[in-house]
Amino acid sequence: MATRSDQTGNQGSAQDQMVAGSAWMTAGSIFSRILGAVYIIPWNIWFGAFYLQGNALYGKGYNIYSFFLIAAIAGVPSAIAKQVAHYNALNEYGISVRLYKRGLEIALVTGVSIALLMFFGAPLFTGGDQHLIPVLHSLAWAILIIPTMSLTRGYFQGFQQMAPSAISQFVEQLVRVLYMLLTAFVIMRVLKGNWVTAVSQSTFAAAIGALAGLLILGVYYWRRRHYFRGLVANSNNELVVPANQLYKEIIAQAVPFIVLGAGITIFQLIDQYTFAPIMHLAGTYTDAHLNDLFALFGVNANKLIMITISLSSALAVTVVPLLSESYTRGNKQEISAQLSNAFLMFEFVMIPSALGMAAIASPLNLVFYGRSHAALAASILAFSSYLSILLGLYTVVSALMQGISQNKRAVRYFLVGTVVKFVVQWPLVYFLGAFGPLIATGIGFTVTCYLIIHSLDQQFGINFAHIAKKTNGILLVSLGTYALARLVAWIGAFSGSQGRVVNFLIVMVAVIVAGYFYVYVVLRTRLADAILGPRVAGIRRRLHIR
């Protein structure tokens, strides 16, 4: 029988793994998202008067591509990570390798099939915008590559090796952004070419970046091949799993990942295909004006809030294999502890990030998007920042459900939220314009998150009293962080400048002042220790905080 100290040690080890894994995945996601946002500034300048139209076209193409990509990947990477962790916990590493090979076969088939569908079926998905056809053609090439790359990331994650995934993700984004900026400059400034062509090359950059990311994963696998072979050689080899059963396991685990992984994208597609028709009923608007509005709430704000949402996404990827191991062992106490840790780590990074972005929405918008519709754009960005907490929470709780093999139930709850989104979409857009889709999204995800959290509590008993005590501390410090950032932005507004350089300085001062306040207080009060574990003490010593 396991002693209390053994259980405590196991929980501590799981928390350490979660923190270390989250650190790698969070770093990779944040740097990737920052790169994916910073390119906007020169891209905006080089597109000139065509910027909002170009960004709307880019966003519409990427929304469709994201949905097809999730279908092509078919949730296989996350399913592979979960199942690899399951067999690794049983010391059956040989089955994990076979699982990876079978997953590759599925990924290749789905990748080719979905890429062909997207390329030749592009005219069917444009919603009447013919400019989308060349954009979808360029994005189809990425779908040929990304499933294999994502699957390999899932394999590493199943072994709790998060560094290869994080670094390949960063390299993928870096190469993609460099190609985007190079082609945008050459086409728009050197050749004085067509803006649709420039957007098409910017989207084709996804395929170039994917090749670079896959190459990095190949290098990591080659360097660690002896380690993997050693694990296989020392496996128990007591289980015999036929190839057909492996295929069934992958598909059974993967299909719910498609729906849940595409959750945010599905809501964005609902906005993309319903916003303009509803607005045409509400008043007399030109298509160009509605494209500008869609760019403001559906693309511009989205790019920035996805930086903070990536924090929770990284956490979600880390939690699934750990929960799968605990679920395989049938340890409900450990599962309950991991659920609490996951919620607290999510709050610890997401709440101050979202509130901080809302506080500096006006100067931040001016830095990235310039003066076009500045007041409306800043308001939308601030509202979207608050909304990002709900989007991030959905990402985490859906991953938690998958980690404990409650996939079908999670899909049902998501479908309920989607129905709610559909029901409230029309009146909210009709009466509230560009804010309507955002509010409808918030209501839909609130319903889904409530149903999932209620289900988790019913099954494993979430310690809400434990979470609430630390949540109050996080919220209090986060509000102080918000107030400081807002104060800096308010003082900076007296400059009267709408230029990028001045507002960039305002943003940097706000981030440094408010960020340091948050870090100092959570370390000084030992709140960080309670959530992230004892290793935080080393950071406190290095910063000379007692």
From TrEMBL:
InterPro entries: PG_synth_SpoVB, Poly_Biosynth_Transport, Polysacc_synth
Membrane-traversing stretches: 34-52, 64-85, 106-125, 131-152, 173-191, 203-222, 250-270, 304-323, 344-368, 374-398, 410-428, 434-453, 474-495, 501-523
Xref: Pfam families: Polysacc_synt (PF01943)
Record's subcellular location: Cell membrane
UniProt entry keywords in alphabetical sequence: Cell membrane, Membrane, Transmembrane, Transmembrane helix
GO cellular component, one term: plasma membrane
Taxonomy, superkingdom: Bacteria
Annotated membrane topology: Multi-pass membrane protein
Main localization category: membrane
Statement: the UniProt record of this protein carries the keyword Transmembrane helix: yes
Annotated protein name in UniProt: Polysaccharide biosynthesis protein
Species the sequence originates in: Levilactobacillus suantsaiihabitans
